[in-house]
């Protein structure tokens, strides 16, 4: 499973759609583009639109509790939580071997100059998974 996600930080009808409703739509669009291009991923791609991050990450905790028994099926967890600005790369946490794979994948984004792989990923909604060794 490749988990692609973003959360809706804004409290219900309040303002704050850029912090980070944008990440939810970036994640949605990434999967939409894969489908539109007719690509057939080798792994299951799963979109999660988190909620409850501002209330203590209760959505992420509940999802983790429901799916942690299948943790060996998760290859990577990703969360967009930086807005919809021009990307420069990805933050990454994982083994040296996984980092080498991520750096190779990022070379595919050379045409748009988004190739950096930064040390350490973080994300309220994916921290449970990364603490258990899933690359993030």
From TrEMBL:
InterPro entries for the chain:
CPQ, Peptidase_M28
Protein name (record): Carboxypeptidase Q
One example of a Gene Ontology biological process annotation: proteolysis
Reading the lineage from the top rank, the first entry is Eukaryota
Where does the Peptidase M28 domain start and stop, copy by copy? Answer: 2-135
**Oligomer and partners:** Homodimer. The monomeric form is inactive while the homodimer is active.
Q: Name one GO cellular component term.
A: extracellular space
Q: Which molecular function terms from Gene Ontology are attached?
A: carboxypeptidase activity; metal ion binding; metallodipeptidase activity
Key words of the record? Carboxypeptidase, Endoplasmic reticulum, Glycoprotein, Golgi apparatus, Hydrolase, Lysosome, Metal-binding, Metalloprotease, Protease, Secreted, Signal, Zinc, Zymogen
Membrane-crossing ranges are none
Q: Where in the cell is it found?
A: Endoplasmic reticulum; Golgi apparatus; Lysosome; Secreted
Q: Which family does it belong to?
A: Belongs to the peptidase M28 family.
């Amino acid at each position: 499973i490749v988990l692609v996600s973003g959360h809706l930080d804004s409290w219900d009808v309040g303002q704050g759609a850029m912090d980070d409703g944008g990440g939810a739509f970036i994640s949605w669009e990434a999967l939409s583009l894969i489908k539109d291009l007719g690509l057939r991923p080798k792994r299951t791609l799963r979109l999660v639109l988190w909620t409850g991050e501002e209330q203590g990450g209760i959505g992420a905790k509940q999802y983790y509790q429901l799916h942690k028994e299948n943790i060996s099926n998760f290859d990577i967890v990703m969360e967009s939580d930086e807005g919809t600005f021009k990307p420069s790369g990805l933050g990454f946490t994982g083994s040296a071997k996984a980092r080498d794979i991520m750096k190779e994948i990022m070379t595919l984004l050379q045409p748009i100059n988004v190739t950096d792989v930064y040390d350490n990923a973080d994300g309220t909604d994916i921290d449970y998974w990364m603490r258990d060794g899933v690359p993030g």
